[in-house]
Amino acid sequence: MPIVVKRSILRGLPVEEAMRRQVVHLGKTATIDKSINYLIRYKVNALLVTDEEDQAVGVVSKTDIMGAYYAALPTESPLEHIMSSPPLFCRPQDSLESALDKMRSRGIYRLYALDPDLEKVVGVLAYPDIVGLLYRYCHSCEYSILGKRRKNQDNNGVHRFQVKEVMTPSVKAFAEDESLLQIMEGLSAYRFGAVLITDRDHVPSGVVSKTDLILTYKHGVPSDVDARAIMSSPVRSCEETEFLEGAIQKMIFSEVHRLFVHKTASQNIVGVLSLSDAARLRSGSCHACVSSRIKVDDHN
Amino acid sequence: MQANARDVMTTKFHTLVPQTPIAEAVKIFRRASEEEQSKVFGMMVTDEEDRLIGIISMYDILLLMRPKHIHIWGMMDDIDITGLVHNACERAKSIVVGDIMTTDVVTVTPNTHLMMILDIMIKKHIRRIPVVEGEKIQGIVYLSNLFYHLLDKLAA
Questions:
Q1: Strands (E), chain A
Q2: Contact residues on chain A for B89, CB-CB shorter than 8 A
Q3: In chain B, which residues touch A (CB < 8 A)?
Q4: Architecture of domain B5-155
């Protein structure tokens, strides 16, 4: 009996084809203040921390820095006090699938690619890198709805993923007058990257992300101020029936890691779609490539 | 014989503070360029006691304006550019000079030899070096200062 093996288009691709080769790093005695400067300057979510011998000894993410803000550590504290250690590695030749499995099973968002011969970190792989790769795949597909000049604007009978099939169907919302401390508690308990802020009438009025929080920390703002003081508006959102391809495109262009999802013709936020959700799907964003993903192995 | 930083440095310079919003910094850059009658592409950043704590260049600001995922879609020919610049400007709103300035600043003293400065500039790919004595900023040496100084010698 033939065994149907589900193939994803990521199968067989090595990490080195999706990883970023610029690895932003700082020494372990560098200050938190400086690390925030680096995160903003290089538009990354985490830094590799190195010791005196340039060996990778830890990782500092926006989450770690938010924890330092919550604990009211001075921004002059060294990174070695807040880093997660050791960093988790993969090899450049590992398959993307095994890397994704490792990220999922360990509950982490990035892996550093360690070259076994050079004994040196040569790249970093995070969920957005994988989405980027998928995006390029989808974009060049003849069935893609991406790209306005394409002739195949109709569906061609292809079922496409809609946002609601992939999104996280719950949203953590806070009121405008709740403090940053409360928001940080929420963010760490629910492992979200951002929370929705609603006004007195429960209408979404803004978003507070980890990036907003670490900037606020760097600017010396006390953590008991109201969400209203630092939230960014408007709320970037999409409709739940929108195609995943379009939503990913929106995120890539507006440089956000998530979109809040609302019902059609309603302001009601019903979920959140993150780049990580999109990456976890592991395949393209429509079923057009399903046939190419299914391989029938003839085990006689 | 003129041979040290003090002989070529510009002593009239503009500074910024880390709290200055980026949009404001851009205006100050423009104003400084008008006052100096030459383009100002980089400025020193000082603390309350006028101590040098960083340097910010147009390049740092452009880094902020560069779309994050351009490597993903930069080669695509069907990009709707409308809104991209607007997005970049929106993002820059909450950013202040201290967030993106370079804090690893190479400095020299007024007595540092010209050729030493030239060597640092070439090796580190930098175009301006603050001249500091003790904790006080004395001036700034631009690559162009060095160039015109050496050019004069060459042409003499």
A1: 3-6, 25-27, 46-50, 56-61, 89-90, 110-115, 120-126, 173-175, 194-198, 204-209, 237-239, 258-262, 269-274, 294-297
A2: none
A3: 19, 60, 63-64, 67-69, 71-73, 76, 78, 80, 83-84, 87, 91, 94-96, 98-101, 103
A4: Roll (3.10)
pTM of the model: 0.84
Selected residue of A25, A232, A254, A275 to mutate for chain B interface (largest B Cβ count, 10 A): A254
Domain ranges for chain A: 8-126, 162-280
Distance of alpha carbon A52 from alpha carbon A282, whole angstroms:
38
Architecture (CATH level 2) of domain A162-280: Roll (3.10)
Cβ–Cβ gap B69/A41 under 8 Å: no
Q: Would you list the domain boundaries of chain B? A: 5-155
A8-126 belongs to which homologous superfamily?
CBS-domain (3.10.580.10)
pLDDT in tens, A44-81: 999 999 999 999 999 999 999 999 999 999 999 999 99
Q: How far off is chain A from B117, nearest CA to CA, in Å?
A: 26
